[in-house]
Design goal:
Layout (H helix, E strand, L loop, with lengths): L2 H31 L2 H20 L15 H19 L4 H9 L1 H6 L5 H29 L7 H30 L2 H17 L12 H7 L3 H12 L6 H32 L1
Helix pairs in contact: 1-6, 2-3, 2-6, 3-6, 3-7, 3-10, 4-7, 6-7, 6-11, 7-8, 7-10, 7-11, 10-11
Length: 272
């Protein structure tokens, strides 16, 4: 009588992992059938990287620019990677809305699939998509002439920061979608948050050249945490305390947002 609950408790985490993997595979199959969404998501970042990287390359010569070593393309690449992660993950909630409209969500709720697995799968799918896009952007930057003294380890940290950022905003997007169940609301909130977060960071310009209040706001901006961690990792001489502090902030926020998304899912289930 005392062993049955123990067996159930020990198998529960494995069940969640299995269900999450299966549901993530379902989303990845849809991406494989329609890779155009992945490609379209790269159009704007490539324009930023190649066009803006050339148009504003003289910015590094401005007095006070603190990241002049390596040129503007090296400075811009981490910002473009994080911009891509931010913009794509802000639409992650559309997956829930499509499943709700098509009746897929109702079938999922009547299936043995773990409820937490539904949230984890959406976040994992977005993380994988971000990872692929980030690798392509870094490869394009290298072909365009950017050089990263941090080497492969620096690129790996950049990818990690991008994945953590995507987890934060895919969880937020999913929570908004589940609570509102309205595409218009999700679109409005996504548009309202992504652009300000991008420009209130050092993604495209050194914070030493902007008004002081922007720098103060950036201190609380997850976008800035990701950009700072990636840019620091790309340097030849890394400030490890800065790097780990910003990665820690991203990881903690991703965990909080993931829990919030799961709570939103429970609210949706009760309402449904």
């Amino acid at each position: 009588m005392t062993t049955a609950p123990t067996r159930f408790a020990s198998s529960a985490p494995l069940t969640v992992i299995t269900h999450s993997a299966l549901l993530t595979g379902r989303l990845l199959r849809s991406l494989r059938r329609m890779p155009t969404f992945l490609v379209i998501g790269l159009v704007q970042p490539v324009i930023w990287l190649l066009l803006f990287g050339q148009l504003f390359r003289s910015v590094v010569n401005l007095p006070g620019f603190t990241h002049a070593d390596g040129g503007f393309l090296q400075f811009l690449t981490p910002g473009v990677v994080m911009m891509t992660a931010l913009f794509s993950s802000a639409w992650a909630g559309m997956t829930y809305l499509q499943d709700i409209d098509r009746g897929v969500m109702d079938r999922m709720l009547t299936s043995p699939a773990g409820r937490a697995a539904l949230v984890i799968a959406t976040m994992a799918y977005q993380a994988i998509q971000t990872l692929i896009q980030s690798l392509i952007i870094v490869a394009i930057a290298l072909l365009a002439g950017a050089r990263f003294p941090g080497g492969a380890a620096g690129v790996a940290v950049t990818l990690l920061a991008a994945v953590l950022l995507s987890l934060i905003f895919s969880a937020l997007s999913g929570a908004v979608a589940l609570l509102t169940r309205q595409q218009a609301t999700l679109i409005a909130i996504s548009q309202f948050t992504t652009l300000p977060l991008m420009f209130l960071s050092s993604a495209v310009i050194d914070l030493a050249l902007v008004p002081a209040w922007v720098g103060h706001v950036a201190d609380y901006n997850p976008m800035e945490w990701a950009v700072t961690a990636a840019r620091e990792a790309m340097l030849a001489h890394i400030d490890w305390s800065t790097l780990w502090a910003h990665l820690g902030l991203l990881a903690a926020t991703a965990l909080v947002m993931g829990l919030m998304s799961m709570h939103a899912f429970r609210v949706y289930r009760k309402a449904a």
